[in-house]
Design a protein that fits this description.
Elements lengths: L2 H18 L3 H17 L1 H8 L5 H12 L5 H12 L6 H16 L1 E8 L5 H15 L3 E8 L7 E5 L2 E4 L2 H16 L1
Parallel strand pairs: 1-2
Antiparallel strand pairs: 1-3, 3-4
Helix pairs in contact: 1-6, 2-6, 4-5
Amino acid sequence: MSEFKVASRYAKALIDLSQEQANLDTVKNDMQQFIAVLRQNTELQAVLKNPIIKQDMKTNILDGLFADKIHPSIMEFLRILVRKGRSNILYATAKEFVRGYDELKGIVHATVTSAVALSPASMDALTKTIATEIGAAEVVLTNNIDESLIAGFVVKVGDRQIDASIAGKLAKLERHFTQTVN
């Protein structure tokens, strides 16, 4: 079974448990903290994925880093994964948990790339428009800057993309003329 499938199943189990215990939001925040620490520390990721390092050492490392920072049920969940020899999927499981949480709550992540930073008012208006168009409960919008767009913006939501940039329109025009000439 692929790492993704196994991580998804563990994440789903943790979501179900968190819902039963009515602490889903707390678990999500702790999982985001766990992801942030692992993302910043590739050596820690390597230790957790290394099959040569003993399970008790991995558990001690996790306890030392997270025991007083995250909910006890999550700590126990992490310990169980280590005991089952699944420490290599801790990061993937945490990411899948957050993805599953977002899906459950109707949260959609979108990116808008523009030539200059968008104002808070523009970001808010675009967020509301995207939420209305796709029927999402909440949209988390990130603004990336790409000066090569000249003006306008490109919005990506999942596998959909809307290109309203000058550079995109120029490229489309160039393709049209190239096809017409040939």
